[in-house]
Write a structure and sequence with these properties.
The protein is an alpha+beta fold. Helix content is about 20%, strand content about 30%. The longest helix has 12 residues. The structure holds FE2/S2 (inorganic) cluster.
């Protein structure tokens, strides 16, 4: 029987926000969350929506890295949110991550 260790790290997110009905310009909202080594970027987007701000919107469909609907940028790097592990993002960019839509 094997055991899997789940690590948790504190990560600060800057998340792009813009509501064309209310905002004159886009802005970034800050969120600080404990992230586990099992999570992918889409889990973070879900947690922002479910736990912090129900008005936060993003797209996803297959959740298997096939359709491309969940494509976003993390620190300027285009990625599939449902496929990219948070462990990999933290390894590349550290604990300060900026999440934005594609151009
Ligand atoms: S939801 Fe289809 S690739 Fe991510």
């Amino acid at each position: 029987m094997s055991t899997t260790t789940i690590n948790t790290q504190k990560v600060n997110f800057k998340v792009f926000r813009f509501n064309a009905d209310e905002d004159y310009l886009p802005y970034y909202e800050d969120y600080s969350m404990d992230v586990t080594s099992e999570e992918v970027v889409l889990d973070i987007l879900n947690r922002i929506k479910w736990d912090h701000d129900g008005s936060f919107s993003y797209r996803r469909s297959c959740r298997h890295g096939i359709c491309g609907t969940c494509a976003i940028k993390v620190n300027g790097r285009a990625t599939l949110a449902c496929k990219e592990s948070m462990t990999e993002m933290i390894k590349i960019f550290g604990n300060e991550l900026t999440i934005e839509p594609l151009k």
